[in-house]
Design a protein that fits this description.
Blueprint lengths: L5 H7 L3 H9 L3 H18 L6 H11 L3 H12 L1 H14 L2 E6 L5 H7 L4 E7 L3 H13 L6 E4 L13 E4 L9 H10 L7 E4 L18 H14 E4 L8 E5 L4
Parallel strand pairs: 1-2, 1-4, 2-3, 4-5
Antiparallel strand pairs: 5-7, 6-7
Helix pairs in contact: 3-5, 9-10
């Protein structure tokens, strides 16, 4: 039985190695090798600049299972930080919860296990990610509480969500301000809570080649953030933050 709490994540990432090796039918030794090489492999694939169609094509069609390796390695190497984001999510997630850019499903699984969450709607362009999260949900008995969708246009999604998580996504899209506006439009105006982070920086030595850092795009992002959202306090010393919507009256 996989424990979907903080201790369970810190122990083994919710059985992440075991799950990914079984899902991909790989020996764990080969899985470790692929995870170690994944970031460099994806960096070689990605063009230096992506418009919106190019971004969708890259993450949906070109990265394939490589994104699973890269995300799995990141979650296992950064377990303490991600555990803190899970702690914050416990204070925010409720009702119908959107996990936008849900990746390998750590946050979706943890949210679905919370008693105050009715259902988690995991949205991710990458079909391999969606298949893996659905597989993990069945593996831990949460298949009735997690629905995987490609994008926000999916007709089965609720019109608005009681809460949402969007972590390690905004710095990867061509227009983060536009995505932020979309998320605001889908959040309940009364009582809805958003958990967000961003890192608009390619690194001092180019160690984050996937991130956008265009000053105009970043400035517009913060303009929309201040127009649409009001920050809530949480006690964890991490970059992820929680927000409610500003009144537009």
């Amino acid at each position: 039985m996989v424990a979907l709490d903080i201790a369970g994540f810190l122990h083994d990432g919710f059985a992440l190695r075991e799950h990914l090796a079984a899902f991909l039918t790989l020996p764990e030794e080969e899985l470790e090798t692929r995870m170690a090489a994944a970031t460099d492999a994806l960096a070689q694939l990605q063009p230096t600049a992506l418009d919106e169609p190019g971004c969708e094509r890259f993450y949906e069609s070109e990265v394939g299972a490589g994104h699973l390796y890269e995300l799995a390695g990141w979650h296992l190497q950064s377990a303490d930080y991600i555990a803190d984001t899970l702690r914050v999510q416990m204070t925010a997630a409720q009702g119908d919860h959107l996990d936008f850019g849900g990746g390998i499903g750590s946050h979706a699984l943890a949210a679905a296990a919370l008693p105050q969450v009715r259902r988690v709607w995991m949205v991710d362009l990458n079909g391999s990610n969606r298949e893996f999260v659905a597989w993990r949900a069945r593996r831990v008995g949460l298949e009735d509480r997690i629905v995987c969708c490609r994008d926000l246009s999916d007709a089965q999604l609720p019109g608005r969500f009681d809460s949402l998580t969007c972590l390690d996504v905004l710095e990867h899209v061509p227009d983060p301000a536009a995505l932020l506006s979309q998320l605001a439009d889908r959040l309940m105006p009364e009582g809805g809570v958003a958990l967000l982070n961003w890192y608009f920086f390619k690194g001092f030595q180019g160690e984050y080649p996937f991130h956008i850092d265009d000053p105009a795009l970043v400035q517009r992002f913060f303009e929309v953030l201040q127009e649409r959202f009001l920050e809530r306090f949480h006690p964890y010393l991490i970059t992820a933050r929680t927000y409610t919507l500003r009144s537009r009256g």
